[in-house]
Amino acid sequence: MAFKTHGSGRPQRSASSFRRGRPSGGSGGGARRKGPAKQYIHPSKFINQAVTKEAEAPYESKHKFADFPFGAELHANIRAKGYVAPSAIQDQAIPEIIAGKDVIGLANTGTGKTAAFLLPIIERMSGIMLRPSVLIVAPTRELAQQIDEEFRIFAKGMGLYSALIVGGVPVDRQLRDLKRRPHFIIGTPGRLKDLIERRHIQMKNMGFLVLDEADRMLDMGFLPDIRRIVSEMPDERQSLFFSATITPDIERLVNDFLKDPITVSVRTTETSDHVEQDVIEARDKTHKVELLADLLSQEEYSKVLVFGETKFGVQRLSDHLSNLGHSSVAIHGNKNQSQRQRALKQFKEEKVKVLVATDVAARGLDIPNVTHVINFDTPQTYSDYVHRIGRTGRGGARGRAHTFIDQ
């Protein structure tokens, strides 16, 4: 199925104004992205007509949430959340974590793994007076924030408190939160390492370690920070690793940090197989902007995630789309934490139609009902592509992804 372009339904003047004064290529001017050179990905890898989601048999859980040996308050919070039957990772990991075992959880993003580790740890924290006792490490501010929000829902009324320790925001409030001696510390590696080394975080009572999206943290170069953080923790602890893949680096971490771990693997076929994908040929950046605006004018493009390569280009594209009448927000590394959270909230609640993002949003975030993912700029690697388009086609819904390529 070849993608049919829809003609130049947008005024030439508007798209040209987006381009004026900017070099072509990438998603905006400014310094080139540092790091490894972008991999060449053959355009055929951006095309997939088979939507196989319906062919997957639904998971039949062995338990109901009511079967787990949780206290009355936690069960009440689970019911209030509307949870009845656990997902595969929850069904299989929760009993092992409750039993006190180290666990390696292999699961795709969006499978409910946050609840899989939060619920049993919250239960095991009941009556424990040592604080802080739980350290949860995530690769991005957004994922850490998401984990903290879920913790607050599940721990409501139980007398358990958390501190969110992430970069990109002033440290003063975080220091105040730490002085309350929270039970849970949830954060990103860089800021955690900094505050541990400055002795603002005491690690001597830490009985639980969770590394979420471990593969992503290693991809982002956080391995030295993680090793430094864990070196401060007691040897006697329960450690939980969650990852989409097992790589040699992950295996080394497992051997160093976990004791006789149980592996729970519920990985399914790569997300890209469930998403209908196609390419859109564009002559140049002006043409790309025109085609994107045409797509967004169609009714079915109701909740669209657009990926760009550079922080500057993402912001510029988002502003331009808003000027054309397509409500849009952006998230990228130049936004502070509150700005990023506000943009995500607006998009999740469908107060805006378009979220334009760098790859900071490609992993770990649970954004429901994304109708389309559009790669305005091609990703650095095919793995990044798979994670980008994994934002759509979730929970059995039909997903679509388009990638702009040179004509």
Could you explain the architecture of this structure?
With 407 residues, the chain is of the alpha/beta class. The chain has 2 domains: 12-54 and 270-406, 3-Layer(aba) Sandwich (Rossmann fold); 65-265, 3-Layer(aba) Sandwich (Rossmann fold). It has 14 helices and 13 strands. It has helices spanning 12-19, 72-81, 88-98, 113-125, 141-154, 172-179, 189-197, 214-219, 223-231, 248-257, 285-296, 311-323, 337-348, 382-389, and strands at residues 103-106, 134-137, 162-165, 184-187, 208-211, 238-243, 262-265, 275-282, 304-307, 328-331, 354-357, 372-375, 399-406. Strands 3-4-2-5-6-1-7 form a 7-stranded parallel β-sheet, sandwiched between helices. The radius of gyration is 22 Å and the shape is globular. The two termini are 17 Å apart. The model is unreliable at 1-17, 19-34 and 50-54 (pLDDT under 50).
Number of helices: 14
Structural class by sheet pairing and helices: alpha/beta
Helical fraction: 25-40%
Listing every helix as H and every strand as E from the N terminus to the C terminus, the arrangement reads: HHHEHEHEHEHEHHEHEEHEHEHEEHE
CATH fold call of the largest domain: Rossmann fold
Overview features:
407 residues; alpha/beta; Rossmann fold; 7-stranded parallel β-sheet; 35% helix; globular
